[in-house]
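Ticket #4471: structure output looks truncated?

Reporter: J.K.
Steps to reproduce: submitted the chain below (104 residues) through the standard prediction queue, then opened the result file.
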Amino acid sequence: MTPNDSGTATSGSTTTLVDSSKSWTVNQFVGQAVIITGGTGSGQVAQIASNTATTLTFVSAVTTAPAAGSTYVEQDIPTQDGLHGNNSECALQAAAASPATYFP
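Returned output as attached by the reporter:
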């Protein structure tokens, strides 16, 4: 599965991830997933509610806020029958429970 984007957070909270090096199109990632792949919050998966040029806002809060230096990938949400850019929270919960299955 190829990520739509990846990077290193410059800050974050339990409901946001900020990467000041980006210049995303507003709301281009709505409904997709962000996976914290390293650093603080590693292993967490969140669905994206909205985004600005530099900030991803999550549908639901994660347990541990990503911090400066946390790495991430942003990609479509995997399901058993393929990838869907705008899917339910259920797919994210399954992916979080078994990330190696959904994000090899």
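Triage note (M.O.): checked the attachment and the full token line is present. Residues 85-90 have pLDDT under 50 and may be disordered.
Status: closed, working as intended.
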